[in-house]
Amino acid sequence: MSAKVFVPPAWPTTDDLHEADNDCLFLAGTIEMGNSPDWQADVIEIVKDYDIIVFNPRRVLPPEGTEDIIKQINWELSGLHKSNTVYMHLCANTISPISLLELGLLQGTQSTTKVIVYCDPEYLRMLNVVTTTNHPLWVNPFIRVFDDYEKSIISLKKRLDIVTSMQNF
Predict the structure, then answer these.
(1) CB within 8 A of 89, min separation 6: which ones?
(2) Which of 58, 148, 153, 169 has the fewest CB atoms within 10 Å, i.e. the most exposed one?
(3) Which pLDDT tens digit goes with each residue over 78-94?
(4) DSSP code of 50?
């Protein structure tokens, strides 16, 4: 089996979720209304051979109208909730306010969802991310922030190796 990728509004079937033993990866991070590099495609290529479900919020066309935007938001929140691994990529020279909101939601949860954040050294809010994720009152041991892309990918692969090895346990 290989990774099954879902883009809004598509959602995995119960059979899909069962086949992957609920091992889901959510790709959070910079989209900037489609004006950022398609880093999601690169990550999908890297994880394509894992038995996982990948939630990719980057659509070919951005949502149009209030109803479509609400569906997108709900899809993303459901995907974040369902995933046991989140890979967040924050691109240089962007603000990515929705990604910051998602990171805040993940930081405040008591789940064991592993969050791997790649924060480009030129990301405009890098100091906010590093300071917030390290604050002693809000630290979440399941969030790890990297300023080196290759190290973040190594961490993601290690996480997926662990998660998918449990499928056959």
Answers:
(1) 27, 28, 29, 30, 39, 40, 43, 118, 152
(2) 169
(3) 999 999 999 999 999 99
(4) S
Provide mean pLDDT across the span 34-49: 93
On the question of pLDDT at 133 being above 90, the answer is: yes
**What integer pLDDT is reported at residue 168 of this predicted model?**
58
Locate 152 and state its tokens.
């973040």
152 to each of 30, 43, 86, 103, 155, how far by Cα in Å?
Answer: 15, 11, 12, 16, 5
Report which DSSP code applies to 36: S
Burial (CB count within 10 angstroms: exposed 0-12, middle 13-18, buried 19+), residue 87: buried
d(CA 19, CA 103): 28
Q: Which tokens is 107 given?
A: 């930081």
